[in-house]
Structure formats: structure tokens, C-alpha cells
Amino acid sequence: MNIPNELQYTKSHEWLLVADGVATVGLTDFAQDALGDIVFVNLPQPGDEVSAGEALGDVESVKAVSDVISPVSGVVLEVNEELLDNPALVNEDPYGAWLVRVEQLTGEEELLDAAAYEAHCAEEG
Amino acid sequence: MELIFERSRPGRGSDLLPPLDVPECPVPAQFARKQAPRLPEIGESDLSRHYQALARRAFGVCDGFYPLGSCTMKYNPKLGEAAAALPGFTGIHPLQPAHTVKGCQLVMAQAEYALCRITGMDRMTLQPAAGAHGEFAGLLLIKAYHRHRGDKARTVILVPDSAHGTNPASAAMAGFTVRNLPSTAEGLVDLEALKAACGPDTAGLMLTNPNTVGLFERDILEITKIVHGAGGLVYYDGANLNAVMGVARPGDMGFDVCHLNLHKTFATPHGGGGPGSGPVGCKEFLAPFLPGSALCGNGGDHSIGQVRAFHANFLVVVKALAYLMRLGSTGPAEAARGAVLNANYLKHKLEEAGYASAFPGLCMHEFVLTLEALKKETGVSALDVAKAMLDDGIHPPTMYFPLIVHEALMFEPTETETPETLDQAAQVMADILRRAKEDPESLHAAPHTTVVGRPDETAAARHPVVRYVFPEE
Amino acid sequence: MGGYLPAAPEERARQYEALGLSGPRALYRDVPDQVYLDAPLDLPAPKSELEARQSLEHLAAQNVRFPTILRGAGAYDHYIPAAVSAIAAKEEFVTAYTPYQAEISQGVLQSIFEFQTMICELTGMDAANASVYDGASAAAEGVAMCRDRKRTKAIVSGAVHPDVIATIRTYCFGADTEVVVTTVKEGRTDLTGLVDDQTACVYIQQPNFYGLLEDGAALAAAAHAGGAKLIAGVNPITLGVLESPAAWGADIAVGEGQPLGLPLSWGGPYLGFMATTQAMMRKLPGRIVGQTADAQGRRAFVLTMQAREQHIRREKASSNVCSNEALCALTASVYLSMMGPGGLRQVGEQCFAKAHYLADALCALPGVRLRHPGPFFHEFVTDLPASADVLAGLEARGILGGLPLEGGLLWCVTEKQTREELDKAVSIVKEVLGIWN
Fold first, then answer.
1. Sheet with strand A65-69: strands edge to edge
2. Residues 64-93 of C with CB under 8 A from A
3. Which of C109, C266, C306 is most worth mutating to test chain B (most B CB atoms within 10 A of its CB)?
4. Are residues B337 and B305 in the same domain?
5. Residue B346 — pLDDT band, cuts 50, 70, 90?
6. Whether residue B169 is found in the same domain as residue B305
7. Which residues of B touch C21 (CB under 8 A)?
8. In the predicted model, what is the mean pLDDT of chain B?
9. Residue B378 pLDDT > 90, yes or no?
10. CB contact under 8 A, B457 and A87
11. Distance (Å) from the alpha carbon of A87 to chain B's nearest alpha carbon
């Protein structure tokens, strides 16, 4: 399983990269594998406020839906529109297929580094 | 096979109407359609064969055993069809004056009376068109009741984690917050968890009894007492009434409002997904909130309004009344006992064949197998087993429900099956279990004999094609 | 033989024996004594099939069946070709459940796919669902599709069917959505100044409740100018001759499918249909059938986009709908296939022409006038003296006259009524009103 060192992670299996005051959020390799073939992503709109620990959208597989929990609080700067046409990218390249970029950051959830996240995944099996 | 649009040829069709016998009067150009809809152009003979081919590719109760859990796929007596085809019912306009529809009113009154007797409720509305529609209407009764008392704090509906998906969805549509209640290891409502969840924000509890794992909530009187004690109301999801009709009544168990599925318990056919009918019964104190109709009247003083136009899915009610007349005072209990007996008989046979029940002991009208161990051992999933059943002409049970059981298969044989049918089904299941151990690959690839194999559902959902794409597009 | 049990009593006794049970009470051992019923229900004794059939026939005979129906208001008396009822009665369709198991349900799934295509063709939309309960609940579900966090108000035209308005209100009571009903000016929707930045949608009906044709394009433009969606409630029987709602700018088209081959049946079961644009497709509630293929590349149909629905999304689902009106949708598909584009056009033209014939003839009588100016389709409101007497006179001669409405009568004429019947109705009205010429 792929867990890049340069990213931060949540226990609910989102990854986070903060640069220049903008947080980029996506789903981890573990998450996409557990969900199976992703068929649709529901994303917020630019300008929407998101809160750390609350759902910012969800991803659908054929027979399941799973919330994407925002690791940060802030305002949505942009969403990855490419995923609306090609949700399979989340399966194929989870760390390339970011979901949203959030700015005006005011808070964050408890975050894990790669090693801690790997341990967390091992626990969840 | 071809789609009906692919059978279409320009210029084909039937002469169905006489020529216009009044002066022509064209639609004003501003409103006139510029491009005709591309409906099929097809002769009646071709049309007839098209639908016969579709019928051969469908599977009804008429085709074979249909133990689809939670759906009560019992035999649909033909008397109901005959009654619902009477021109004295089909030819009646919903807005005819009252003195010209006495027959319709009597049908409604007789059905309401019988359903009140069976449920132990005081009043019944036949307006809702399906079970989920009934849930919505029933929950609005609860909402209106609390609002009417000025108690706006009651915003939470409690729903067991084993509940049908419609329960939380209906509660949310009615504007409630849903709080999930965990089940005990035995598959029943956890009384301590219920007590802890009840409070001044409790609007009500939604419950099926027997519940979705096919067990009767033996503490039901305690459950309804706890909710009432906290000031909430108790809603009965009638999806599983077939187990207890004539044997025990929701009204006597302490439920305040309930819905029924005439297309399950009362033998009206499901039509490939409807029409159904979802009457809602309630105790007298909720009667003022019952729905009516803006044009047809009949609402209570503080009516929630209406959830559809006109009166009811009337012809479905006619079919149910035909069934109710045949059952009379003693038939409901006989049917229920037959359903519970058949379920236990099949459960026993399947356990003998080596399948694991999710919950041991006696069940009500349905039971749940768990194939978790089989999957670990052989890689064969509940889905694989279900698909293999298709090759033997049996409609599979409900898969992956309730959510609290892993690799679940939920069987509901109903009372209208003979012991031989159940024996044969058990034999089919035993053979599948043997193949799971000897040749799991053949089950992963099942079904083998159907007109298509497992469709690619991922592709369907990723790039939805929900209408025919005409060649010229 | 209660409950249609197929097994003989001795066979059932053997089943109890196999389970080691003494009888029914043992089967129901979890049911507390306090609620266990020992006695039969307080209902009549079971009836034989012959007796039940006679009772039901007797009930049907107590209704008055009007040979001529000049009343619509949401339920329409159209000709139903013989093949429609015959095909819709096929037992494989009638007794099937929702097509969860695609491999053995291709017939039902394909029929729904064909229905969705026909609804898209009629409405001009990109996607349709497998149906909902009826036109009124379709309208309410359409409103729910438009609501979001920022826009929580629904504007409903006052010229919409009263049952539809009331149903929208009920659903909005559930969802705590504000409903504003517009005023009606000369029988048509008056949207002036109503659409604001809280408005999620505007719901209109075409033709409207009074039978009048609305300026759909102008209403759509007004809704869109305020950032709201336009929902059009349309009568599908008109769409062989009237412009499609998509063409005049609707975002969602819904309606009552009863005119498409379903009998009047005192109001149900009917057929709610819903269609929308590509952009809003995933907001459609309920079952949707999609095309795909199996592993061998054979075309196959499945229930798709299921993660929208209640059985997966539970309390987060936008709708709880599950059972719909599949058999009624199949009936409508057979009807539309029998009629074809030419037949549907002919029905529309005849409804239009015959309604105008009756309106002209009635309004030629002194004291009778059309209430509203401007174009109508196949329904119209007349003001006339003594409307109760008129209705009684018509009823005595086997004619169901127009619906009493705010002192007037709302008439409807379809392709089914002959000139002779219409002339007869007019002469009865004349007689009742004491007009001799």
C-alpha cells in the first residue's frame, strides 16, 4: 500500500497537503481500495465553507456511499472537476486525484504522519 | 434482443381513431411542437411479440419460487385481478359526485375496517401509494401531533441499525434527525440503549415487529412503554406484518401509527416495482392529522395535507379487499402461521444442509443466513450463491441485508409454497454449497443459463446511459 | 382454506413434526400472552371465491359509470387500445418484484429503459426515472431536487392542480421548505416580483389547471433570471402537438402519466413521471435503469446510480421512494408504442379541436361565457347560470359534466367524445337553461 511520506493523514483515510495557505485534500490508497470501484464523487462548490471533522462531500461505489471528512476548516477554493467525468482516477491514482482545495484555513482535525497512518491502517486491517 | 426503437420503421402503425368529426382547429403556432417525439412506429403484431419476448425475460411469482426476504412474494390470487378489471371500477372518474361512487366508497370503507381490525388501529387512510409513502405520511402524523401540542423540541426519530433503508430516509424527509439504535447480539432492540436514547427530544421510534432479522421483539410491551414514558410515539413498519396478522396486533403491542404494504401482506401483485399501496393506520388521537385531498376533501381538522392526488391506488385496494374477503376472520392467522411454519421449515432444512443462520432458534416469517465463514473458507460470497440460484430457476433471497449481518442472505418463503418446493430449494442450496467447496470458480462465474451474465454495474454507474441513443445522434 | 395455503393440513402437521413443535403457539413462543390472539378477528367469515366475486361485482355495480365524460381536472378519459390492457396483464410483468436480479429481469429492465427513453422524447429531456407514485408526488419530488442550502423557497403557480399544490405543501412541511403560491391573473401564472435569491424553483403546469396554455418560455426566463430552476408539470398526451418543456426552457419536467393508456379507476393507480437535464440527472429520485454489458459484451440493463437511493444512502437520501409504478409505466410505454408519433399527434389534435367545438357551442348560448381569455388545450372554464342544475340535467342523460369550480364549470373533451355526444350535451344545457330556439 502506498503512503507517501510528504503528506498528512486523517483516521478517516483522507490525505492532506498544505502549501501556501491552501490545503489539498484527497482519499488515500487504503480508502480507494476499501471502497472498490468508485463511480461518482459528490463535491462541494467553490466558496462553500467546510469544517474539520465534518463531511465535505461523498464518494459512491456501486453499492455503497462514503462521506469524505474534511481534515481542515476553511473555504473551498476549487474542486477537481475532472473527477466528475472520470471518477475512476481516484482508484487509479489516489494521490494525484485530489478532490478539493481549501483556503482561508482556520482549523484542522487530528492529523497523522505517514508512519502513524500506516500503523492506523494496519490496525483497521 | 432489439429495443422497441430498433424495431421501428417509418410509416408503420395502427389506425386507432376515426377521422375528426368536428371542424379542424389547429394549435396556435406559438405553442406547436416543431419536432415530433421519436416514438416507435410499429404494427400491433410486432408490438405483441416484442412484449412477449420481454415477458419471457422477466421472472414473476408465476415463474417460480421467490423467497425474497422482506418482500413477501406470495401468490397473487387471480380473483383480485378479475375484480380490479370490472368496468364499474376502472371506468369511474375520481371527481364524480359522491352519490355516483357508492361502490368505491364501500370498497374503501370495508378495506379500512378490515385493516383496522387486523392492526388494532382505530383509523386508516388508504391514500399512500407504497410502503415508503406510508412511512412518510405516518411520520408526518407524528410531527404534526407534536407541533400541535406546541412541543417543538421533539425532533429525533430513533431507528434500529437493522432497519429498512426507507425508515431513516422517510424520517429525514419528514424533517427529523435520525438516531440509530444498536441491536443486541441476539438481533433485538437493546433496551438499555433505547432507554439511554429516549428523552425530551424523542419524537418517536420506528420499528418492524418481527424485525428485519426475522425475530419477534419479545420485549415489545416494554419497548413501547419506554418510548411512551419519554413522551414519544411508536411507529410500526408493516413490512413484516405477514408473520403476525391475525396472531398479534400492532395496536395491542402499543404502537400508535403503522403502515401496511398491500402489495406484500395482502397479496396484491408487485408489478415489477409497483403499483403498491401503503395504508396508514393510527390510534384515535392521531385521527385529526390524517391526510385528505384539496379536491376530494376528507382530511382531519389538523390534516397534514395530502401525499398524492385524489383518493388512493384504488384498484390495488380492490385487489386487497378481494383477498381480505376470502380470508375473513380466520384466514389472516392461517396465512401468518403458514408463512412462519414454512420459514422455519426451510431454515431447518438449510441448517441441515450446512448453512449457518445469523440467529439460531425459531424465526418468524423470514430468516437470515450468514455466509461469512463460507466466504473465508472458499471465497464464495453471498452474491455468488445468489447468482447460482438463478441457474436453478429460483429467485434469490434478499442479499446483503440487514446491514448488521455480514454476507447476509434473507429468505422469506411465504405461506403459498408447498413443502416440496421448500425441499427442492433446500436441495438446490445443498448442491451450491457442495460446489462452493469443490468448484468455487463455477460459482464466481454464475449464472450460466440466463440470457445475460452479470452486467458491468460499475460501467453503468460511471457513465450512465439511461435512454436509447438514436442512430442519428 | 384460509390464506391460499397450498399444503394440505396433514402436510402442515408433518412440517410441525419435522420441527419438533406441538403447534402454532409453540411457533409463536416469543409473542407475549398479553398480545397473542386466541380468537378469530372481528371480521366476517371467510368467503368462497364465488361469494367474494359476487360481493365485489355488487360493489362495482353500485357505482354510476358515465357513458360520456366531460370532466378532466387531472384524470382523463382517453381511448385505450385493446393491445394495451392485454400486454400489461401478462403475468410475468404483473407478479415480478423490482428487478434487483438483473440476469433474470432483463424484460422488466428493458421495458423501463424504453419507458425512460419515451419520456425523454416527449419532454425533450436527457434523463428520466422509472416513475414515482403519481403526478402530484412527482411534482413534490421535483421541488425536492432543486432545494439546496442557499435556496429554500419554492414558488408554485396558483394555476396548478389543487391536489398538486397541496402535495407540494405536504412534502415541504416535512422538509421545512417555504412554499409561496403565486396569484393568478386571467387564469394564468403571475410571477411578477416573486423570484428572489432564496428561490430554489418555480413550479408551473402546462396546460394549467384551467386548461390554459401558459407562456412557458417567459416563465422559464423569469425563473432563470433569479437563479431558480423551472419545473414544468406537463400533460403527456399534449406532447404530440405542444412544444416540449425542454424546448421552452424547463429544467425538470414531471407529470401525471394516466392519460397514456391507464383507466380512470377512481384516481389510481396512476403514474408519476420525472425527467431532467444531463446536469441534474443524479438528483433524480427513485429507480433508474441504465444500459451496460455483461462479460461477453452482450447488451444488458441494470438498476443504476443506486448510491443515490434510500437503501444505500439511508437518512442522507434525498428521497425515500422505493416501490414506484413500474407496471403503469409499462402500460404507458405500450400505449405510446401503439399510438406512435402520428397517433399521439392525432389524439392531441382531436382533443384540441373537439374541446374548442364544445366551448364555441356552449358559449354561443346566451348567459354562457368563457371565464378566461386566450388559448386553451382541451379544458376550459365556463361561467353559466344554474351550473348545479346543468350538471344534474347532464347526469340524468348519462353525461358527467364539467367540474364545479368557483361558481363555474371546468370542462374537458378528449378524442373519445363524438360530435353527437357534444351536441347532445349542448342541447341538454340549453334545455336546463330554458333556452328555446
1. A38-42, A55-61, A65-69
2. none
3. C266
4. no
5. very high
6. yes
7. 344
8. 96
9. yes
10. no
11. 7
**B351-371 pLDDT per residue, tens:** 999 999 999 999 999 999 999
Alpha helices in C104-238 (DSSP H): 106-123, 135-146, 162-175, 216-225
Are C271 and C148 part of one and the same domain?
yes
Looking from the CA of C39 toward its CB, the CA atoms found within 13 Å total: 4
Is B358 found in the same domain as B275? Answer: no
Residues B202 and B318 occupy one common structural domain: yes
Hey, are the CB atoms on B461 and A39 less than 8 Å from each other?
Answer: yes
What does the pLDDT read at residue C408?
95
pLDDT of A110 reads 87
> How close A65 gets to chain C, by Cα (Å)?
6
pLDDT confidence band for B76 (50 / 70 / 90): very high
Residue B380 belongs to a domain with what CATH number?
A: 3.90.1150.10
pTM: 0.97
**Shared domain check, B266 and B149:** yes
Same domain, B118 and B182: yes
- Phi, psi (rounded to 5 degrees) for A120: -60, -45
What pLDDT is attached to residue A64? 86
* Yes or no, beta carbons of B335 and C2 under 8 Å apart: yes
- Given C278, C300, C334, the domain boundary residue is C334
How confident is the model over B180-233, as pLDDT tens digits?
Answer: 999 999 999 999 999 999 999 999 999 999 999 999 999 999 999 999 999 999
| Residue corresponding to grid cell 433508474 | C288
Helix, strand counts (H, E) of chain A: 4, 9
Q: Is the domain of B194 the same as that of B341?
A: no
Last residue of a domain, one of C275, C305, C334: C334
pLDDT at residue C437 in the model: 59
Q: Which domain holds residue B409?
A: 332-450
* pLDDT for res B210: 96
Count of C-beta atoms within a 10 Å radius of residue B6? 12
Do the domain assignments include residue C42? no
B to C CB pairs, distance under 8 Å: 693
Provide ipTM, 2 decimals: 0.98
Which chain A residues have a beta carbon less than 8 Å from that of C305?
A: 39-40
With 0-12 CB in 10 A as exposed, 13-18 as middle and 19+ as buried, what is B56? middle
Do B101 and C64 form a contact (C-beta atoms < 8 A)?
yes
Is A40 touching C (CB cutoff 8 A)?
yes
Smallest Cα–Cα separation from B123: which of B322, B242, B267, B292? B292
**One domain for residues C166 and C143:** yes
Residues paired with B183 in a beta bridge: B189
For chain B, what is the radius of gyration of the CA atoms? 25
Q: Do C305 and A40 touch (CB under 8 A)?
A: yes
Tell me what pLDDT residue C40 has.
96
> Which of the residues in chain C have pLDDT under 70?
1-2, 437
**End-to-end CA distance of chain C, in Å?**
67
- Which chain A residues have a beta carbon less than 8 Å from that of B457? 62
Q: Do B400 and A63 touch (CB under 8 A)?
A: yes
| Sign of CA pseudo-dihedral B51, B56, B59, B65 | positive
State the smallest CA–CA distance between residue C434 and chain B in angstroms: 24
Give how far A19 is from chain B: nearest CA, Å: 32
Q: Does residue A109 register a pLDDT over 90? A: no
CA distances from A17 to A26, A51, A103, A105 (A): 9, 16, 12, 12
What is the predicted pLDDT for the residue at C123? 98
pLDDT at A29 over 70: yes
CATH number for B114: 3.40.640.10
Q: What is the pLDDT of residue B305?
A: 95
Give the pLDDT of residue B458. Answer: 95
The pLDDT assigned to C138 comes to: 98
Cell output for B61: 411469482
What the block records as the C-alpha cell of B123 is 383509523
